[in-house]
Structure formats: structure tokens, C-alpha cells
Amino acid sequence: MEKMEDKKLRALFWRIDYTGALVDGGVSTTVRSLIKEILKEGHDVFYFSGSRAKLPSNVKIYYFPFNRFYRNFPEIFALNYNFRSFKFAKKVLPQIQPINFIYHPVHDFNFSAGMLKREYGIPLFLQADGVQYWIKRNWGKLYFSKLVLWAEEILWALSDKIFTFSTQLKNLLIEFGAPGEKICINPCGFDPEIFHPQIDARGLKESLGLEGKFIIGFSGTFELYHGISFLAKSIKMVVRRIPQAVFLFVGDGSFRAQLDEIVKQDNVQKNTIITGFLPFEEVPKYLSICDVLVSPGINNPDGTEFFNSPIKNFEYMGLKKPILATAVGQQKEIFKDRWNALLVEEKNPEAIAEAIWELYRNPELAQTIATNAYQDGIAKHTWSHRAKTLLDAYFSLIKK
Question: Do the first three CATH levels of 4-189+382-399 and 202-380 match, i.e. the same topology?
Fold first, then answer.
């Protein structure tokens, strides 16, 4: 008799983000990686999206374009987009049924996945990267606060499982009314086929003029919570001790101007390279040439604990590089000081600089940290582990 876990599933990934599902960045990497692992297990995936997506060729993609005019008035037209995308899905779903579950990364003002759940009774799994009400209030602009929270409350109520990245984020979700019994912590991860120690990037190092340099790397968006300004302020202190040090910033974001200003004020332009956003497939090469990789995240200004699960942390592990991280949120849970990372106080450029100096002058410690981080990553933190958590949740649900 066939075991339930051997059953071939048909998963629907619903990425009808109101202003268009981004094709790069954290959410896209998470979704793309989960899909890849689910396909490896022999299941089928169907993908509904508001933007073109970079996905395997055997994923059936249904593209429902958003009106670019909506970007200028993102809250005003939110209700309309929900109903239009739901109407679109109703035309397509009969062609691809049966669907075993819907996986939906939550986006502000979007409750259309809940409408699908209510109409068809298909189990609904949410990916909650944050509380959208909190994010809009603290990191953006919010005009219709009751509407954005109402949309989230609909999804929370209709969902069967809420996947979130960290204990800190679970606590925040519960604080705003999400049912705790539905929440499952499923952090970010990495793909060991993409991020691994054998990447050959010698040509890149030469082309950037970095041969013989001691390279300190960072990847990600330049946003407040990533603590990019504190890393920038450490550059001049590091260069005093390690003149051949070069800081390689892979990414971009709203704090780019502040980063540029710090580098200029401290006169460390020759010791700094900022790549801007790179295609995802280029990122591993750039990180692989680094001698130290840094994750300088900080707690939020309103006192909320750092609740992110930076993908960079797990990708760093996969590259088998020594890691330096601030002791905030999930980072102090996945990293143990002097075992698989050096942990330092947040918002402290001096502590960052001192830790870099220690890794530079103690290559044995650096190698130990890199090896332990790599082994830990392979054992616990690949996207395969995260996909298994998702699929196990489905099988547990239908056994009830």
C-alpha cells in the first residue's frame, strides 16, 4: 500500500503581489528555492505571479500582470487587484485541479489567497516575512492602516499553517493577533549546489584588482535593519591595522547614499568596492573571494527585536568562510560565538573592527569557524530541510 508521504502532490504558489512580485531578493530566493526542492521530490508546481519569474522550465507559470500605474497609488487600488486576480484564478484553476495546497508569501493589502481557500477549500499555507501593518508603519508609508491589518487578519483566520522565519517574528505575529497554534518557524536556507567551497573565481579577483588583498564581504540590501552604516564606519579602523584590507559590498538599497558618504568622509574609497545589485547567479562568485563575511544586523528603532532570517547567513555557511555577525535575534541562535562565527555587539563599529582584526591575525580560529559553520549549514540549514518542513506540515494536516 502506498504511504501517504509517497503521494505525488500538486502545489500552487500564489505570488500575486499587489505591485508585482519581485524576481530578485529574499522573498524570490525563498520561493524559487522551495519550488526547486519540491520538484526534486517528484511533485508538481504551478505558479501564479504578478511578474515574470525565474523558475525551472517544468513549472507551469500563469502570469497575471499588474497595472504599472498602480505603483503611484498602491493602497487605493488594492481591493480591485485582489478581486481581479481572484477572478483570473477561477478561470484557470479548473484546468489544473486537483491542487493539494496553496503557498502564499503574504504581501500588504493582499487577501486574494484567502478568497481561493474559501472558494475551493484548498489548504492554505502562508509565508509571513513580517507583520505587514508593522512593516508599512515603521519602514514605509501607511494611509489605510485598518485595511492592511484587516487583509492580514483574513489570511491568518483562513490559513491552515503560517510559516515564519524566526522565533522573534512568531512573537510579533502573535502580538498582532495571529493564532500561535498555526505558526511554524521555518528559517531561510541555502542551496549547496550554488553556494559551496569549490567555486572558482580567480578571474574575478584579478579583474577587480584584489589579488593579495584581505577582503571583507557583505551581501544584501542596504537597509536600516541590516546595520550597513556600522559596518561602513568600521572600515577606517580596520585599514589602520590591515592596510591591504578591502570591503566588498554586494548589493544596494536605501542606505546607499549614507554608505557612500561614510566612505568619502573617512577617505577609504580605495578600500571599498560597492557592486550594486547583481544577478543572483553572480553573487556566489563575489562572496567566494572574501576572507571574512559579515552580517551586521541591528534591532529595530521602536525596540522590536531583530526578527529577520537573513539568507546571507546561510549562504555564508555554504561557502565555508569565517563569519562575523552581531548578536541579535536569530543570529545569536544559529551562531555560537567562537564556534561557527564571531559574535559582536550590535551598532558597534569598534567591535566589528576588532573581530575582523582577530580573524586576520588568527587564521586557525578563522578556519575552525568556517569549517564548523559549513558542517552546521549542510546538516541543518539547506533549502531541502526547509522544503521538508513544508511538506511534512501538509502530510500532518491531512492525517488529522
Answer: yes
Asked if residue 15 lies in contact with residue 49, where contact means CB atoms within 8 angstroms, the answer is yes
Pair 295, 323: CB distance under 8 Å: yes
Report the helix count and the strand count for the chain, using DSSP H and E. 15, 13
Please name every residue paired with 344 in a beta bridge, in sequence order, or none if there are none: 326
Tell me the per-residue pLDDT of 294-320, one tens digit each, with 9 for 90 and over: 999 999 988 889 999 999 999 999 999
The 10s digit of each residue's pLDDT in 340-373 is: 999 999 999 999 999 999 999 999 999 999 999 9
What dotted CATH number matches 4-189+382-399?
A: 3.40.50.2000
Domain range annotation of the chain: 4-189+382-399, 202-380
CA–CA distance, 254 with 260 (Å, rounded to integer): 11
Q: How far is CA 287 from the centre of its chain?
A: 17
Residue in 101, 128, 115 with CA at minimum distance from that of residue 154: 115
| Domain 202-380 in this protein, CATH class | alpha beta
**Selection from 306, 299, 297 nearest residue 324 by Cα:** 297
Check the CA dihedral 312-232-258-333 and report its sign. positive
Length of the chain: 400
Written as one letter, the residue type at 349 is: P
Nearest CA to 352 out of 327, 319, 321 is that of 327
Contacts of 8 (CB under 8 A, 6+ apart): 42, 43, 44
Hey, how many other C-beta atoms are within 10 angstroms of the C-beta on 58? Answer: 9
d(Cα 179, Cα 220) in Å, to the nearest integer? Answer: 31
Contact status, residue 124 vs residue 97, Cβ threshold 8 Å: no
d(Cα 391, Cα 388) in Å, to the nearest integer?
5
**393 phi, psi to nearest 5 deg:** -65, -40
Distance of CA 17 to the CA centre of its chain: 16
